[in-house]
Predict the 3D structure of the following.
Amino acid sequence: MKAVMIHTFNVRPELLTVADPVPPDDGVVVQVGATGVCRSDWHGWVGHDPDITLPHVPGHELAGTVVATGRHIRRWKVGDRVTVPFVSGCGRCHECQAGHPQVCDRQFQPGFTHWGSFAEYVALHQAEQNLVALPDDLDFVTAASLGCRFATSFRAVVHQGRVRAGEWVAVHGCGGVGLSAIMIAKALGAGVVAVDIDVEKLDLARQLGADVVINSRVTPDVAGAVRDATDGGVHVSLDALGHPETCVNSIENLRTRGRHVQVGLLLADQRRPALPMDRVIARELELYGSHGMPAHAYPEMLAMIRRGALQPDRLLGQRVSLEQSIDVLVNMDRFLERGVTVIDRFA
Ligand SMILES: [Zn+2]
Ligand SMILES: [Zn+2]
């Protein structure tokens, strides 16, 4: 099969022909129909992710068709159209047993712990509990865009942030995660403040329903501006970028007893930002992490998509070939892409 291969961190990956994968006993092989290009892939390529061993194939936002199954697989068969959360739980540990495979102690992550989906085929381990069947009317490109950023935003807004109609939500960073969060928060009936440094991304945010947009490049006190626009602060705030500045702004723009959800990854030398814990105590703020979404939560999200309340296809950006994806990947840190870039040609 063709695959995008990383041989050395921070050196341009190559498109190579390698052996097709075989299904593990607890897994399946999926012919990739579409796969998203995500900032996490860039972090992996640069060498920020300790789970990755070289040589490596990135890619974790995939949808496709099952073409082979391992001997312990009962629920899935050849021909099934599926997607998979970017974290697949083991099904046996304490967290999996409690219904939280997204924070499993023995995670399988395609494109991180194992070779991923920047390839014609990908082997998925721990597949029995973790695959998600796709509705027939959901195309692979849209489905691929759900697996990481959209599902992560859904969990962050719906489950961790517990956003309710009539509340204010701030979204810091209007990339794939942030735009998804805006759409989801609006679908729940919340008012949304979108923050970014990029005028075009703020235009997209407004098209998706953001009530207030703030350009943080020209706004000296972002948190103050959000509080002013929302009568004292938002109920829920997301750092959808993952940067010390957006993280702190997201905490400081909350109203009393507000909820901050950290969605964007803070990596490398930005892992431990200085947080305003004085404010967290005095105002009884709540801080949450959000890490993907379990397969069992997908039906709720898919139902909202099927009835048109959520339209993830509106977040799609460019479609590229496997070969073109290399340029997109290595330039991901420049934030050039608008919406979600998806690979949909593999030959
Ligand atoms: Zn991703
Ligand atoms: Zn587990």
The longest helix spans residues 146-160.
